[in-house]
Write a structure and sequence with these properties.
Blueprint lengths: L10 E4 L4 E4 L3 E2 L13 H13 L4 E3 L8 H10 L8 E6 L1 E3 L5 E3 L3 H15 L4 E6 L8 H13 L3 E7 L3 H10 L2 E7 L11 H8 L2 E5 L30 H21 L3 H10 L14 H9 L7 H10 L30
Parallel strand pairs: 3-4, 4-5, 5-8, 8-9, 9-10, 10-11
Antiparallel strand pairs: 1-2, 6-7
Keywords: NADP, Oxidoreductase
InterPro entries: Aldo-Keto_reductase, NAD(P)_OxRdtase_dom_sf, NADP_OxRdtase_dom
GO molecular function, one term: oxidoreductase activity
Length: 345
Amino acid sequence: MDTQARPVPPRVKLGIQGFEVSKLGFGCMGLTGAYNSPLDDEAGIAVIAHAFSRGVTLFDTSDVYGPLTNEILLGKALKQLPREQVQVATKFGIRHDESGTRTVCGRPEYVRACCEASLRRLGIDCIDLYYQHRIDTTTPIEETIGELKKLVEEGKVKYIGLSEASPDTIRRAHAVHPITAVQMEWSLWSRDIEPEIVPLCRELGIGIVPYSPLGRGFFGGRGVKEQVSAESNLHGIPRFAPENLEKNKQIYLRMEELANKHQCSPAQLALAWVLHQGDDVVPIPGTTKIKNLDSNIDSLKVKLTDEDLKEMGSQIREEDVAGGRQFTSFAHTTWKYADTPKKQS
């Protein structure tokens, strides 16, 4: 394929506060080891630079990825890019205690300390989009957002986001300071946000950022066409347990048939489905390989009609998926369990 014919992600507004990003973002998590072994700095920076050269400008990281090393890597890549043309999204809220157990914290002093530390690691003076990564169900959301609002007023953060937040938490947070984006898992095999979260975001003018739009690589053939590597943390997700993968293979095979019809790969079709969910939807697939990155961006060329979307929804049904979507150890932190206590006045 010649580069002239290659699509460039259009620019879209994420939320109604004026935050403009590329319609397709890039999730940096995998670059420092999650599903595979980490890339060295040079290779990781090359992937980020290539994404930017193809028109991707929204880069998503978190202090817990690595931990810490992912932000440092993105910071090194940013030194080679025009800062004003890049939108940096990072997150706080998941921490490892002494025993290595992951806990969630949204206390105001913790929010501030995390923001200062992320700015240092990224080597920037303002985070474009700062998310609460998981919701602290012991701290009223008003207190967490109150501190984020101060960080916005101080010019350290431009826009505020939430990830895996419940409807009540989103509404209450938005009443304290406008929420620009909600990051949720959303793909053909993870559709639990459709009945409540998606309509609520649209009612409030909040953008939606789907993570794992390729089902953590499942729609790219991971676990079906290629083995899940021994060091991958996917072994902690029920859908990738051997007995469930055996059942889920049928879903991948159906996806292959549909992709043949649309003359694209199953991964491209899965990503195109997410891209077609609305102008306010900006998925952030990640990859460690430039060829997969190109393939993901090229999915913008796959055009789907309402009929196509309906057919895909009827062929790939969430109720046919075996196993939960989240790490067993962290399933209690998903949006369904993310209400916070009422603030004492």
